TrEMBL record:
It comes from the Bacteria. Gene3D superfamilies: Bacteriophage SPP1 head-tail adaptor protein (2.40.10.270). InterPro entries: Phage_SPP1_head-tail_adaptor (IPR008767), SSP1_head-tail_sf (IPR038666). It holds the Pfam family Phage_HCP. This is Head-tail adaptor protein.
Length: 112
């Protein structure tokens, strides 16, 4: 795997906007912007997906951002927006003490 260090892609971190539906249950009604970051983008290769036994047809990628205070709140419950699409965060890994955060995500298919 090649080392990606150039953070030349703008991503937006999103938080679910929730409201009570007619049945009295809490439901996600949209996604609010939390903050923007510059990130390095690296698509996950087909070979890597095969080694991980991924069978679904989806776009997976890694994003690397610099550590910052706001990043500590990001979890798999959040999303990110990149290149006009929303991505589901599936993993977060700190690389070095307060260095980079590596975010693994998959592209959410657009609903027609």
């Amino acid at each position: 795997m090649a080392e990606v260090t150039e953070r030349d892609r703008r991503i937006v971190f999103l938080e679910a906007q929730r409201a009570e539906n007619d049945a009295g249950e809490e439901a996600i009604i949209g996604w609010n912007t939390l903050f923007y970051r510059w990130a390095a983008y690296e698509p996950v290769s087909d070979g890597e997906r095969l080694r991980a036994a991924a069978v679904e047809q989806r776009s997976d990628a890694r994003f690397r951002v610099l550590w910052s205070g706001p990043m500590v709140q990001i979890t798999g419950a959040h999303r990110l927006r990149f290149d006009g699409a929303d991505w589901q965060i599936t993993g977060l890994k700190q690389r070095g003490f307060k260095g980079e955060i590596e975010i693994t995500a998959w592209k959410i298919p657009e609903v027609a």
